[in-house]
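Can anyone check this?
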Amino acid sequence: FNSFPCLICLQMWPSLIAKAKEGGVDVIQTYVFWNLHEPQSGQYDFSGRYDLVGFIKEIQEQGLYACLRIGPFIESEWTYGGFPFWLHDVPGIIYRSDNEPFKFYMQNFTTKIVNLMKSEGLYASQGGPIIISQIENEYQNIEAAFREKGPSYVRWTAAMAVGLHTGVPWVMCKQNDAPDPVINTCNGMRCGETFQGPNSPDKPLMWTENWTSFYQVFGGEPYIRSAQDIAFHVAFFIAKKGCYVNYYMYHGGTNLGRTGAAYIITSYYDQAPLDEYGLIRQPKWGHLKQLHAAIKSCSTTLLQGAQTNFSLGLLQEAYVFQEESGGCVAFLLNNDTKNNASVQFHNISFELLPKSISILPDCENAIFNTATVKTENNERRTTSSQMFDSKERWEEFKDVIPNFSDTSLKSNTLLEHMNTTKDESDYLWYTFRFQQNSSYTEPVLRIDSSGHVAHAFVNNIYFGTAHGSHDVKGFTFEKSILLNNEMNNISLLSVMVGLPDSGPFLESRYAGLTGVEIQYSEEVTYNFTYYEWGYQVGLLGEKLQIYNEQNLSNVAWSKTTISNNQPLTWYKTVFDAPIGDDPVTLNLSTMGKGEAWVNGQSIGRYWVSFHTSKGDSSQTLYHVPRSLLKSSGNLLVLLEEVSGDPLHISLNTISTNDSHEHIHYDHLYQ
């Protein structure tokens, strides 16, 4: 079970852990987020939702174990792979390489976390719940890019981690050359089939990420993985002497604020056994619970018995564990994806469903088949609590479009976006001015960008938007514009929807505008790439933090007008919390692209206008954690970048149609 303590509100921790335990989970696995815990070099934050010690202690209180994935590079569709952006400005740094500046800060943070855990007695060697720690993350994917600096970094990383003397094993996932005694582990959906196994006979067979679904991007469809497929591959891994399987994710949660990586939607692994809101998703949760119970019923024999494997047919085989004392467990596997198979095992006939495994805890009676789902499906229900359809309830503020003369940062070339904003904002204004030659007509503005989105304004008039996608990194904006015969102000807003989270040389990535031209004809083009540019980081509303109640008076709000061409507009209203305990969402299906805040807390980016290939929005419902809400007078602020209609958004509650969700865990809060 992999849960993100920094994504979810601490009030949700007890019930999430309790539901996981009830589902047969033994270990809670979590990443550690360097950018949250050390937002500035040497300045640490473990308060509130970032209370890592509190999260581990809650696991311990409920009688479960923990796996601490320190990283501190974590990827995980988290902005910048979890790195704090201040690392970027360390002179001479090369991330994740045998590079002294990087190793210095990586060791500092890793040591900080380990010492924090030790000081609270949280390692199993101290009587605590942490039985495993992880260093690095899927490094083998990029190791070759660093040539000789890659393998030497792996050796240094392992030695550094082991030298911290936690008294529990360290693992490296997707790292076949993990140095002894660090354990190499598998990530993926079919590790029983794809994993070569541990690189030493003294190391156990471990699966650190069994993907229960897959992350979703803006413009992308959700990935649905069946309960049967998950169960098959877990059973197969155990049959091959696997001793540890972690579900990534068992609960994903919500990418609050600006924490999602490039193009990642705000909802994370909603198709997991516990959905984004912490509700049980059936049949996935129930089917896996039955699988866990079947495996645990014969765990002694699985641990102590001798394993053998033999064929039962062309596509059928048996994995058998036999104890000298007589205990016997069998996994009967049918690899035929289309047809049932009748097999003989121990002189007993068994009918195996297509692509399935039957578990026999006594080598005689099948108590579980991975393809036989006995848990009924449940459905998630959305109930509208209130509409925001009255203009009188809304006020708006149109953000200021800066011109060249308004900017203080100047350069004679196009600056890289991320290095300029330092991740303080998604937004960077590129501005310039020029005098048009009146003899030319029908100018076309062309923008090349390696960012995510670009909005174009000419003399404060909006002329359009272009964007890339998760799979197509660059894009071009090209549109006719209107120019006057005096000085013209061009203001281009570059937008990042999260920072990159993977790949080598992350510190050297380029984002933002790469070329700007105004074309009058095939023969006449003005190139402004090397020109005098003015820059502004962020929007005025961001700078003044007008999403906080105490800062609302920093700007002049007016009654909402709502038009189809109203970019960079802030909207605000107030609302009362829905009665009850059901999770709360905002339906933003009539908005375009932007960000939403409730009582000063960002609940994430939205991008409803980016449709999938089927013409649907990737996400329309946005989670509002109950812990953010007061009973009445809650402040809702929306920043709409392009065009949206707040009069048709709604506040909803989410529930399921099965009785299990009515189980209460109130005793956990006492």
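Reply from J.R.: I decoded it. Residues 3-7, 659-670 have pLDDT under 50 and may be disordered.
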